[in-house]
Amino acid sequence: MAFLIHSAALAEEFNGTTYRLSQSQMEVTVPVNASRLNLTLHEAASNMTLLDEGGKMVVINSSYNFWRGDHNYNIAFEKHVFGNLIYSMPYQGQQFILPLRDEGPVRVILPPGYATGNRILGIARPDPDEISADEGGMVLTWRNASRYQMIEVSYYHENAPEALVKIFAILVAAAVLLLIEYYASIRKLRAVREDVER
Prior knowledge:
Blueprint: E1 3-6, H1 10-13, E2 17-21, E3 25-41, E4 46-52, E5 57-58, E6 60-67, E7 70-90, E8 95-99, E9 106-109, E10 114-115, E11 124-125, E12 130-134, E13 137-142, E14 150-154, E15 156-157, H2 160-197
Parallel strand pairs: 1-12, 2-9
Antiparallel strand pairs: 2-3, 3-7, 4-5, 4-7, 6-7, 8-14, 9-13, 10-15, 11-14, 12-13
């Protein structure tokens, strides 16, 4: 079961892959503790940058090929590096689907002003282990993502539940008015029929 945490320091203690979503792309941060890395992605990556644990850029050499619908990157570093590989991928919509290929924790950060968790408007499947909030948006964390084949997050504007309640209230009010008008016209018709029969 997920629990809510309010903290901006969560990113520092997280040692897994992070997907930060926006309206047109996502930024992916992959922890690195190696001198080489192979990435297989469903979309082409751009703006690949490697930062060491001190935040300094490290030179990378990479080769790329596209095979059977996958974008494959073979990345080599000058030396053994402990840090983060950061890259961008195109992304649109309000549904994030992640086929899981690697082991380790996964974190998804929704765009600011968006939320998930309403059964009608959108939920995360499977349930995240943690749900937190920071200045960047709602953060969903799966500590042992290797148990799953896929993570799916449907999300919506934070004010969507209130808007939905207002729409339902308007529809209910309109239905009540129609029923009142219907019963009033039935009574009038009965009164006219009774007058005719007399």
